[in-house]
Design brief:
It is an enzyme of class 2 (transferase). It is found in: Membrane. It catalyses: a very-long-chain acyl-CoA + malonyl-CoA + H(+) = a very-long-chain 3-oxoacyl-CoA + CO2 + CoA. Its EC number is 2.3.1.199. This protein has 141 residues and is mostly helical. The chain has one domain (11-138). The chain has 6 helices and no strands. It has helices at residues 10-39, 44-50, 57-66, 73-78, 83-105, 112-138. Helix 1 packs across helix 3 (57-66) and helix 5 (83-105) runs antiparallel to helix 6. The termini are far apart.
Length: 141
């Protein structure tokens, strides 16, 4: 084993991360377009939390697919309107994360600021989703 040359997995890792970035980007575009339509309507924020009138099979698919990335599966299976926020922001952040990982796989060194920006986006995502869940707990739908 000591004399054996290690496998070069960089091309495979690059392709895998690019595929995940593309998947996340398409998912974000699909889910966020529905969320923005709801938010731009009457009583937008409250309606986006409490009413599931605009949720459809396509949006449900992306929300369910998102459950692969996290623990939001219980909301996705129930097709709760609140999943709009966690799935939108999660897919957006994952798009940037997978681009970062793809670049790292081909020995491109992203700047330290880009790593800090990704961490900040993840924290911001957590705060936004936590805020919407807090609102959903305190409001009558």
């Amino acid at each position: 084993m000591k004399t054996r040359k290690p496998f070069d997995l960089r091309k495979g890792l690059f392709a895998w991360n690019v595929a995940l970035a593309v998947f996340s980007a398409f998912g974000f575009l699909r889910v966020f377009s529905e969320l923005s339509d709801v938010l731009s309507g009457q009583n937008g924020f409250h309606r986006s939390i409490c009413v599931r009138d605009m949720l459809n099979v396509s949006t449900g698919f992306w929300n369910l697919a998102l459950s692969i990335f996290g623990s939001s599966g219980s909301f996705a299976v129930q097709i709760e309107p609140i999943i709009r926020y966690s799935s939108s922001f999660n897919l957006l952040v994952h798009t940037f994360m997978y681009i970062y990982f793809a670049l790292s796989a081909i020995d491109y060194k992203p700047s330290r600021q880009s790593a800090m920006c990704l961490t900040t986006l993840q924290i911001l995502q957590f705060v936004i989703v936590l805020g919407t869940y807090g609102y959903a707990i305190g409001v009558k739908c």
